[in-house]
Structures
1.
Amino acid sequence: MATLEANGDQRGSRLPGARALQWSVLALVVTTWFSAAVFGVYILMFYGGAGPRGTLADWNHTLPRLYEPATPIATVAMGAHFLTGAVLLILGPVQLLTGARPRYRAVHVWLGRLYVLAAGVAGVAGLGFIAFKGTVGGPIMSAGFALYGVLVTLAAAQTYRHALSRQFATHRAWAIRLFALAIGSWLYRMEYGFWIAFTDGLGSTQSFTGPFDHLMAFMFYLPNVAVAELLIRAKGENSVGMRAAAVGALSIGTALTLVGSYFFIKGYWGPAILASFYSGRRL
């Protein structure tokens, strides 16, 4: 099976546009890993560290009502969602890179089990929070985020199921979908940042009930899935046009990620990480 898979990859690399597609995928994965890993560290230190510091109310600085003493079960669910989400952001690109190299297969398998487990917990915990408390943006935001949780949980289960059955091509396709979904929380912040920078928050309200907020309840993950499907099909079909479209979409994504990451790390995530670090040292 592994030999057939490798031969298939070699044949695919000789198809027109395949080399450009490989490099565009690598560029986006590496760029995303750097940015998402910094964001993952931010989540671990800011949100994860709030419990030991006794500052859980700080969660409400980014989204109102994340922490309320009257809903402890929802708080536990959201804490699990944050921590496992950070694991997804840090390990996702590592999984994509090691899975393509036979010499790292053992690392890929063991980290993959952790990755799938984290994805399942993140999805179920997020759904639990919505079930116990709902979202600050009301029914539309709750529906969008609930669908996101269902898709993450489904993709995690399918990724694991096809790995167990040694259907590696299908496993890889579901792993790409899972990665595209897993970076949704990171993209949610990035996309809001771009929108505020260019439109001064047009259509967005503090209660997340504006038309842009309602759109974002779905758009922080559905376009990712569409790009993932384009990539999966571009890698499997002898279509120069489809590969060119995939390269274009991935290249735009890489450029936007670089620009957004620079401003978020410089103005927000970086200072928050440093503040959490020094605050923790004083405990």
2.
Amino acid sequence: MKTAPDYLENAAAEMKDRAKTYDAPEGERSMAQTVAAFNIIYGTDMSEEEGWQFMSILKKVRSTQGSYKEDNYVDDVAYSSLAAEAAGQREV
């Protein structure tokens, strides 16, 4: 049985793997560009933080459908940490 720290470690490992996959030392950071495009197309004003929160909600919803899939929980942990990172970069 996995513990909470196991999920944190798995999420960190996934994020490090994304850095290799996307050849970016800081990891995959496409949300700012994604929400910018979304905002242009749909005339909205979503922030990068809200984009990560949206993805976290998606994983929460998916976790209620069908059988248990660890990926939903690992990704949710990662998306929550990315939302926190984005929020910390806001000017207060």
